[in-house]
Design goal:
The chain is globular, with a radius of gyration of 27 Å. It is of the alpha+beta class. It starts with about 35 loop residues before the first helix and ends with a helix. It is built from 22 helices and 21 strands. It has 3 domains: about 90 residues, Monooxygenase (Up-down Bundle); about 250 residues, Cupin (Jelly Rolls), CATH 2.60.120.650; about 70 residues, no CATH class. The N terminus and C terminus are likely disordered.
Amino acid sequence: LNSPTRYFLPSPHAPKPSKPTDPARSPAMESAGNDRRDAALGSLAVLPDELLCAIVDLLQPTDIGRLACVSSVMYILCNEEPLWMSKYLSVGGHLEYKCSWKKTTLSRLSLCSGNSELEQKARHFDGFNSLFLYRRWYRCFTTLSSYSFDNGHVERKDDLSLDHFHSQYDGKGPVLLGKLAETWPARTKWTIQQLVHDYGEVTFRISQRSPKKIIMKLKDYVSYMELQHDEDPLYIFDDKFGETTPALLEDYRVPHLFQEDLFGVLDYEQRPAFRWLIIGPERSGASWHVDPGLTSAWNTLLCGRKRWALYPPGRVPGGVTVHVSDEDGDVDIETPTSLQWWLDIYPHLAEHEKPLECTQLPGETIFVPSGWWHCVLNLETTVAVTQNFVNQSNFEHVCLDMAPGHCHKGVCRAGLLAVPGKSVRDIENHPAGTMSAWNHNDMTRAEKRLKGSGSVRASNSANQCASFEFSDVHESLENQVFSYDIGFLSQFLEKEKDHYTSVWSPTNPIGQREAREWLRRLWVLKPELRGLIWKGACLAISVDKWYACLEEVSACHSLPPPSEDEKLPVGTGLHCFRQCD
């Protein structure tokens, strides 16, 4: 065992590890035939398997190899594929999948001297059952091919006029549109086979819960898709595909309903990521989230089927926790994987607690309004393209989300759960025409709690018991009803926070200087929208305070007042504040 390459080799005298309980057997079998566990774990037997797996995941690969030699049960836990997937993702880099995550990780870390050492069969033995490992195994091997084709609650339309879209759906509710992509070359060209033929050697970015960047050649990724049995499979989520494969941009066009994008006045390198190529196998998908910066989005599916679940703004889905830092407004969301949510949480929801749902079919485009929670599960291998955008409807919300502080960010995402110490109702206010198919009852939330540290934590557990912890509170919300209206949301801005002296949130879609440049360009290039732009600039960068200082400085130095074109700051914008001081 002196050589690191041997830590991972099954000893000829080691017991054979078992797979989790066979799916044909009842999970109740966990309590029976588990004689091996106590003897193999000793004092550690008091810990649940989930905690043991979490502890093992903290170890380095070489230490996991040593631990696997301790006992038969440790051998099982140390050879779990999700463990080795986690180990690889913590390293990152260029990925070439080698039939299993253990082989892939050991090869990546140069901890095996040859393929022959990795080809030895795993040991098997009886006398150990684990409900935790069984459930995880089931999620890894379950198939979704027979999933319901029902239409769900989201309205389906062939197409809409721009006026109809703005009046009925933009900023109000999701809609599925069937004919927006009919003439796209991508409808016939974006099959897995054709994409591999045309772009197999091109490297794409992979999305996964990993701090490290993962990239793969398309041909290697498709090979991985065919071989893997992961609970949360890797999927391509590449915002740079237009640069690496510009020909793909010629295969589709932004639908006429979504062509207004106010971020478009920025240079390409200044604007936030806004378009993604998405390719993923069955069981992959996007867990619960609100799109970055409260932007809106459209998503067109070219092949396969996707299952969508959506909640309106302010409604935290069951099993999801929202954290907002009181220091910099950083937003972090804890959520189960998409598949785990559908299998473990969704079945326990009462009818009135369930989300809006729909199955998206090839050729269909779904519109997701600003602030809406959504979760996506691929029912089979899918190829899609999506873009986020800022238009006149969501402009003020995007600006509000850039403002310093954390209170308003919590309320935008978690509604009145963000207000502690009050008995409030979390009620969504949507036009009946948009939500008529969804009878969503009012839901009383649990009593709110105040946390001394000031951090924000909003959650909805599987049984819908919710809590929110906050520092600053508004005293006039006893009978208020949550609304996504900008007037309601802006009252949660922390007035003492200033754009020029406060920390800029790392989850804002663009940087502080870029935000000022964006608003200034809009002011100059879109004079017809100056009323709206001024409102947004007051929310995002306190431009009203800046302009008041500018007028004061001008008067003090007997200078002419600023012209209409000079009402927004250029550069840092700090000079006027220093003069006023």
